[in-house]
Request: fold
Amino acid sequence: MWKFVIFAVAAFILWKMFAGDMNRRKQETKKEQETLIAKGEMVKDPICGSYVSIENSVKARDGGTVRHFCSYECRDKFLKQIEASKTKEG
Reply:
């Protein structure tokens, strides 16, 4: 009986240690992302709203503006929206 209790307590302590470590890593990653956003090294995808690194983004030019996307799918959706708005205007 005592062996089971000791094993359960040890398992609980290990679980708390790993859970705390995962939470700390998530917070550090979030702070790092916020720093990159503030520096202008990450930008928001205009379609899905996720943040993407300027270096690794999929790019499309909209007039004189370069837009950054997280994927080709988001870029294609944006280009379809631009094309649809141009056909409505013209």
Observations:
- Helices lie at 2-39, 72-89.
- Strands lie at 42-44, 51-53, 58-62, 65-69.
- The mean pLDDT is 85.
- The chain is about 60% helix and 20% strand.
